[in-house]
């Protein structure tokens, strides 16, 4: 655990009250990894930066389907935090946030510690919502939270399922790639896989050209496609009025849910429980609190809960945090309009590119995706960049 010796209890109440102005980073999500990297490359801003994160390493979601298919080792998609926080001069408290008092500017952790801050940025990711949406079942494996998914799959893959049947629920890019990954699993050979997209259909936010290419690739890999909503009823997974049993595993990528603590802490949240933020990702009514990624929802424009957007919002967030800590107003807003570019791994040596109305497929796109993914991991695992 990395905890500053200069931080002392405040008035005997167990509140960590730093002697210098403090930035508190809650969670080491993709956007905060960008902030941490900015600190270590350019030097930390004046004051003290604390990180609250219970995990020792973060997994990169973009490489998980390839890992399932045996294209990567788990170490290749993992980013250890200890070297990063040390090189960036960040104090790391290895615990989980459970509540925040936005008025008193105090964060409460699951180990009983309370940390006072001047500015706070939240990038904890969203919560899994499959059990709440579909009903609970022992075979259910939600992609969120990602660390739990990775841990459970490491255990499950060693088992020998009797029927070798898997349903992947979710028609977005995440569900598609997980279906390809499961179909080509390096551990469960010759799986029977079906993709259940929901009534919104296959890749509803992508172009018809991309949807056609993905549908053809699903058929080529013998992955059944069912465009119905799925739920558990009496111990069976049912889509439409059809039972999909027997199944050994139900993997879900149906989007991110909101954790409970933002609403319970008195932060402004929308009807779904996500923290409401402005164009600079500042919490409504609390400009000293930022929130980004799956835990937040912008009010000025729609930004999908996607790892792609979290990655590219990191550098913008770093600049705005620097300005806020120096007493200036944020100056930049993350705009996702130019980043609607996806590379979907077929897990058979090719990738399908999706950009605006264009779609393409081939080995060259897979080479590009691998290069981009590995470059992003290398950015955080290379030696001290300062």
Put the structure in a nutshell.
By secondary structure, this protein is α/β, with parallel strands linked by helices. It has helices at residues 30-42, 64-68, 81-88, 130-134, 146-156, 173-183, 208-220, 261-264, 307-325, 363-381, and strands at residues 8-10, 15-17, 22-26, 48-52, 57-59, 78-80, 91-93, 97-101, 106-109, 114-116, 119-122, 140-142, 165-169, 192-196, 224-226, 230-233, 236-239, 242-243, 249-252, 275-277, 282-283, 286-291, 296-298, 341-345, 351-355, 358-362. Helix content is 28%, strand content 26%.
Structure commentary:
The protein has 386 residues and is an alpha/beta fold. Helix content is 28%, strand content 26%. The chain has helices at residues 30-42, 64-68, 81-88, 130-134, 146-156, 173-183, 208-220, 261-264, 307-325, 363-381; strands at 8-10, 15-17, 22-26, 48-52, 57-59, 78-80, 91-93, 97-101, 106-109, 114-116, 119-122, 140-142, 165-169, 192-196, 224-226, 230-233, 236-239, 242-243, 249-252, 275-277, 282-283, 286-291, 296-298, 341-345, 351-355, 358-362. The strands form 7 sheets. A 6-stranded mixed sheet has the order 7-4-3-11-22-21. Strands 1-2-10-9-8 form a 5-stranded mixed sheet. Strands 12-19-13-14-15 form a 5-stranded parallel sheet. Helix 1 crosses helix 3 (81-88). The radius of gyration is 21 Å and the shape is globular. The relative contact order is 0.16. Residues 1-14 have low confidence and may be disordered.
């Amino acid at each position: 655990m990395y905890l500053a010796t200069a931080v002392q209890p405040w008035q005997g109440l167990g509140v960590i009250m730093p002697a210098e102005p403090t930035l508190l980073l809650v969670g080491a999500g993709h956007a905060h990894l960008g902030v941490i990297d900015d600190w270590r490359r350019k030097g930390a801003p004046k004051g003290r930066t604390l990180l609250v994160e219970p995990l020792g390493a973060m997994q990169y979601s973009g490489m998980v389907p390839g890992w399932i298919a045996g294209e990567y080792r788990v170490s290749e998609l993992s980013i250890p935090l200890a070297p990063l926080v040390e090189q960036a001069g960040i104090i790391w408290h290895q615990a989980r946030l459970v509540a925040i008092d936005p008025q008193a500017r105090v964060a409460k952790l699951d180990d009983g510690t309370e940390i006072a801050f001047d500015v706070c940025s939240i990038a904890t990711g969203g919560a899994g919502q499959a059990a709440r949406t579909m009903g609970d079942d022992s075979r259910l494996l939600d992609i969120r939270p990602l660390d739990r998914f990775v841990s459970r799959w490491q255990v499950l893959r060693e088992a020998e399922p009797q029927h070798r049947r898997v349903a992947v629920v979710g028609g977005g890019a995440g569900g598609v790639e997980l279906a390809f990954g499961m179909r080509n699993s390096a551990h469960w050979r010759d799986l029977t896989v079906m993709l259940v997209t929901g009534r919104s259909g296959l890749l509803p936010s992508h172009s018809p050209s991309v949807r056609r290419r993905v549908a053809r690739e699903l058929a080529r890999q013998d992955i059944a496609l069912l465009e119905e909503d799925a739920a558990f009823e009496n111990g069976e997974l049912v889509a439409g009025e059809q039972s999909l049993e027997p199944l050994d595993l139900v993997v879900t990528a149906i989007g991110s849910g909101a954790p409970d603590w933002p609403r319970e802490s008195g932060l402004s949240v929308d009807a779904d429980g996500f923290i409401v933020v402005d164009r600079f990702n500042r919490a409504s009514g609390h400009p000293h609190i930022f929130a980004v990624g799956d835990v937040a929802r912008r009010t000025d424009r729609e930004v999908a809960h996607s790892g792609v957007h979290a990655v590219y919002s990191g550098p913008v967030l770093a600049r705005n945090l620097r300005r806020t800590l120096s007493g200036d107003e944020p100056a930049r807003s993350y705009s996702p309009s130019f980043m609607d570019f996806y590379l979907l791994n077929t897990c058979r040596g090719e990738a399908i590119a999706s950009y605006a109305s264009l779609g393409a497929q081939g080995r060259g796109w897979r080479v590009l995706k691998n290069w981009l993914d590995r470059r992003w991991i290398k950015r955080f695992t290379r030696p001290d960049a300062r």
